[in-house]
């Protein structure tokens, strides 16, 4: 863990909004209070772009999207276009997708394979490692003035991977990715590090634009189990959810370090739900890749949803695609990319353990796409909620009244839980949401929020 | 993969009775969807239906159309389509409460018949969707359909929906295509 000078709130000018509202008053973990303004206010959006997104580690891509030398994807890092490319040396690098001559975007497809990056405008050409190789009509330049070694592509200064997930940061001071993830790695490994070869992306990400603030879906994916019986009530009517509305409450809410959170929920008492319901041939992988404590969780908790702070979520669930099909597991990754105060671009990935059979891969895919993603019979309704919450919270009268996040607030952590962090018994509650907003507030207020308290 | 029409198929003239039957089927189907009569719509669908909407990536022309062969936004069979319809018939399908107001415009219909008598219809579509409190959604694209006579009436046995969008500009796909 990096030990730069201890985190102190900035001066008064950095702790208030222009209308003199104190940033501390937007979120109160102690009072379980969240201001509606955090979801809609352009000033808060600009502040979080500066203080959070241009300083934190953010998800960029999965390594399996660019398996070979020259493979690239174009993505966004804190609102700036970047190209992520695998070099001839197999090293993955990220660059601002912008020529040093006029700023033109170099790579204009979503993905592809390159030998070099040649600017469409005037032909300046860069290597996969970002080096400026050639310019048009070099003899017309003064070679002392055109210093090619200083005109390489602007690199993403920090780019690291964890178990197949590539993250980038514009902040040279941000700690190593492994330290940033902290003890959340214990939980991420249950999903990303359980099989010998790890996971890969099935197909491509589904990408769609939603009129919501990125914090609404993130809030939901910090561990909101208790929306199921109202938002997804149709599933009870169709016999796809058990009638007991407390059925998903018998798990734990977990607050790991650094604002990373998740919930884990046991499946029904049936061996088919053990080890996430993965095909039996994959279970020996889990036994050799996971620790005893991780294996205990993997055996017991079939369902998990969580978020790597600030905006990368995951879900490991086992559900029916329709009432005629058996419960089938899938693992999905979500990147909630902020594109405006009330705009979010959703990137939803289906991940699969690389060693999985073609039959399981197909079943997992069909279950995922029928239930989640833009057409999913569950997720359709979530998206309607998040847009409507965002719309209504823009009202100035509405904003006079805060939002209450107090479910399970009085419970004490369960010290017998076999994983790290604080774990609360009972998976209906808003502890993980409050932890997320608390961390969000720390990043807005502090000079070095990555230094753990 | 975009070739819905197999090599044995031959084009039907636009003034043929079979062409007229297919286009009328397409228009009646669109009317049922736009009127929200999903139960009647399901009666037009074969139990063997393969209903897919692939994801699309913006790629350079030499890399093809960018549609993904085996991954998409819909991957349905008869059972899952029936589930979608039953869901719409509950009072708790919130994405469709109130109901989206849609219009399925179908044009540029071309029909080929293969050696087994399957009718391969390609069409351009523009689906418009309006909901309270959000801008109009436009879904332009192409449909590759295969229709077949089952018990004397045309049924849809395969539909591949190729949207022009790579990034969906809509919050969800709670409507049928």
Low-pLDDT sequence parts of chain A: 1-13
Number of helices of chain B: 3
**In percent terms, what proportion of residues of chain A is strand?**
15-25%
- Helical/strand content category of chain B: alpha+beta
* Distance linking N and C termini of chain A: 11 Å
Unreliable parts of chain B: none
Q: How is the biggest beta sheet of chain A arranged?
A: 9 strands, antiparallel
Residues in helices of chain B, as a percent range = 10-25%
Q: Report the top-level CATH class of chain B.
A: Alpha Beta
Largest interface comes to: A-B, 46 and 40 residues
The arrangement of helices and strands of chain B along the chain is EHHEEHEEEE
Rounded average pLDDT of chain B: 95
In the CATH hierarchy, what is the architecture of the largest domain in chain A at level 2?
Answer: Alpha-Beta Complex
* Rg calculated over all Cα atoms of chain B: 16 Å
What's the arrangement of secondary structure elements?
The complex is a heterodimer of chains A (453) and B (177).
Chain A: E1 27-28, E2 33-34, H1 42-53, E3 58-62, E4 71-77, E5 80-86, E6 92-96, E7 111-113, E8 117-118, E9 125-126, E10 132-134, E11 158-162, E12 165-169, H2 177-181, H3 184-192, E13 199-201, E14 206-210, H4 215-221, H5 228-231, H6 234-237, E15 252-255, E16 261-265, H7 283-289, H8 292-300, E17 303-308, E18 312-319, E19 328-340, E20 343-353, H9 358-371, H10 379-392, E21 403-404, E22 422-425, H11 431-445
Antiparallel strand pairs in A: 1-2, 2-21, 3-12, 4-5, 4-7, 5-6, 8-9, 9-10, 11-12, 13-20, 14-20, 15-16, 15-22, 16-17, 17-18, 18-19, 19-20
Chain B: E1 10-11, H1 17-35, H2 38-42, E2 45-56, E3 67-76, H3 78-88, E4 101-113, E5 119-130, E6 137-150, E7 153-163
Parallel strand pairs in B: 2-7
Antiparallel strand pairs in B: 1-4, 2-3, 4-5, 5-6, 6-7
């Amino acid at each position: 863990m990096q030990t730069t000078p201890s985190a102190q709130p900035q001066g008064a000018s950095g702790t208030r909004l222009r209308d003199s509202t104190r940033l501390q008053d937007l979120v109160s973990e102690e009072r379980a209070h969240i201001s509606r303004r955090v979801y809609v206010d352009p000033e808060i959006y600009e502040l979080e772009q500066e203080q959070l997104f241009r300083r934190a580690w953010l998800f960029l891509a999965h390594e399996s999207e660019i398996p070979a030398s020259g493979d690239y994807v174009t993505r966004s890092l804190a609102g700036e276009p970047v190209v992520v490319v695998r070099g001839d040396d197999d090293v993955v690098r990220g660059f601002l997708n912008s020529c040093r001559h006029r700023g033109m975007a170099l790579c204009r497809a979503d993905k592809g394979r390159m030998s070099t990056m040649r600017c469409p405008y005037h032909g300046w050409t860069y290597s996969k490692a970002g080096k400026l190789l050639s310019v048009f009509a070099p003899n017309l330049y003064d070679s002392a003035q055109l210093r090619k070694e200083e005109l390489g592509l602007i690199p993403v200064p920090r780019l690291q991977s964890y178990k197949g997930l590539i993250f980038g940061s514009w902040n040279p001071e941000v700690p190593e990715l492994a330290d940033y993830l902290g003890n959340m790695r214990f939980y991420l490994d249950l999903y990303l590090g359980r099989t010998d070869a790890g996971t890969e992306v099935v197909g491509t990400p589904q990408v769609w634009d939603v009129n919501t603030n990125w914090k609404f879906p993130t809030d939901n994916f910090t561990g909101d189990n208790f929306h199921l019986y109202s938002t997804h009530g149709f599933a009870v009517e169709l016999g796809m959810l058990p009638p007991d509305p407390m059925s998903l409450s018998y798990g734990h809410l977990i607050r790991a370090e650094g604002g990373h959170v998740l919930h884990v929920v046991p499946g029904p008492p049936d061996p088919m739900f053990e080890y996430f319901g993965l095909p039996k041939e994959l279970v020996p992988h889990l036994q050799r890749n996971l620790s005893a404590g991780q294996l205990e969780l993997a055996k017991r908790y079939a369902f998990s949803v969580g978020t790597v702070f600030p905006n990368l979520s995951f879900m490991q669930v086992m559900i029916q695609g329709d009432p005629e099909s058996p419960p089938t597991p899938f693992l999905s990754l979500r990147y909630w990319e902020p594109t405006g105060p009330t705009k979010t671009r959703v990137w939803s990935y289906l991940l699969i353990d690389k060693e999985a059979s073609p039959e399981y891969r197909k079943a997992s895919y069909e279950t995922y796409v029928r239930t989640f993603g833009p057409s999913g019979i569950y997720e359709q309704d979530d998206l309607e909620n998040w847009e409507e919450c965002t719309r209504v919270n823009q009202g100035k009268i509405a904003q006079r009244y805060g939002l209450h996040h107090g479910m399970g607030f009085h419970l004490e952590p369960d010290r017998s839980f076999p994983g790290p962090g604080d774990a609360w018994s009972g998976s209906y509650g808003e502890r993980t949401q409050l932890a997320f907003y608390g961390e969000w507030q720390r990043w807005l207020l502090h000079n070095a929020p990555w230094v753990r308290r | 993969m975009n070739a819905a029409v197999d090599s044995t198929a031959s084009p039907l003239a636009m003034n043929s009775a079979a062409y007229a039957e297919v286009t009328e089927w397409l228009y009646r189907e669109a009317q049922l969807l736009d009127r929200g009569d999903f139960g009647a719509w399901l009666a037009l669908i074969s139990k063997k239906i393969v209903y897919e909407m692939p994801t699309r990536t913006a790629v350079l022309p030499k890399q093809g159309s960018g549609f993904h062969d085996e991954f998409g936004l819909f991957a349905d069979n008869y059972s899952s389509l029936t589930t979608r319809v039953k869901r719409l018939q509950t009072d708790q399908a919130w994405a469709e409460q109130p109901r989206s107001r849609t219009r399925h415009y179908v044009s540029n219909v071309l029909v080929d018949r293969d050696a087994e008598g399957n009718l391969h219809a390609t069409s351009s579509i523009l689906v418009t969707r309006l909901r309270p409190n959000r801008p109009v959604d436009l879904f332009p694209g192409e449909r590759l359909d295969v229709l077949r006579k089952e018990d004397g009436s045309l049924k849809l046995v395969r539909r591949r929906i190729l949207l022009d969008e790579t990034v969906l500009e809509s919050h969800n796909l709670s409507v049928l295509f």
